[in-house]
Amino acid sequence: FKMFPEAEVKFIWLGRNPLASVNGLYDGWLYDRGFYSHNMKGRTILDIKGYSDTYEWSKWWWNFDLPPGWEEYTQAKLQEVCLFQWYTANLTIEEWLSHNWIWTMSRLSVRYEDLITDRVGTIKEISSYLRISYPSLVEDAPIVQATEPPSLGRWKKRKQMLIPLLFDSAPDKLELCNRMGYDPSDVEVWK
Questions:
Q1: With CB atoms counted within 10 Å of each terminal CB, which end of the chain scores lower, N or C?
Q2: SUPFAM superfamilies under this entry (predicted)?
Q3: 63 has which bridge partners?
């Protein structure tokens, strides 16, 4: 900010139902056209239950984030890896925001669920916040980086796995859900 002292900095924080996020990661790990981020060949062999047993190459390719502590998950269940990735990403964002004065300047919190239920209204809200004209082309924007078209409640196809996963995890994960505005006691009505 020393280079541009007059710059106006704005932040947009996009939040999403924690179990929908974990489910999206789960789908992405299993997507055969992949989100392969880290080739671990020569470094370690992945033995992630529900993933490494699907394709030969899945013993080498780690998907998405590679946060500190990932080594402890090379022999975990896929859903545990996905919960770990969701938690570490969101905790890192939360910690960064709480320790950086710039976050207090100007921010807008947006929920993924609002983008799905009211795309136009949410984009107009973002445009207004940024003081830019509404980009009507977003109404027909193609869906990219998705394993299937976005929809609310998709995570519920795995709710028998995901709800116990969340509630059987360490309390810090439930606390993060609360801080993000997702009350775990209302998990059955999460979108």
A1: N
A2: P-loop containing nucleoside triphosphate hydrolases
A3: 36
Cβ(103)–Cβ(11) under 8 Å?
A: yes
Question: What are the backbone dihedrals phi and psi of residue 146, each rounded to the nearest 5 degrees, phi first?
Answer: -130, 140
One-letter amino acid at 31 equals Y
| Mutual angle of helices 18-30 and 78-98, in 10-degree steps | 130
Domain range summary for the chain, segments of one domain joined by +: 17-186
CA distance 112 to 134: 18
- pTM beyond 0.85: yes
Cβ atoms of residues 79 and 27 within 8 Å: no
Q: Give the total residue count for the chain.
A: 191
87: amino acid identity, one letter: Y
The answer to whether 48 touches 77, Cβ cutoff 8 Å, is yes
Rounded Cα gap, residues 153 and 24, in angstroms: 11
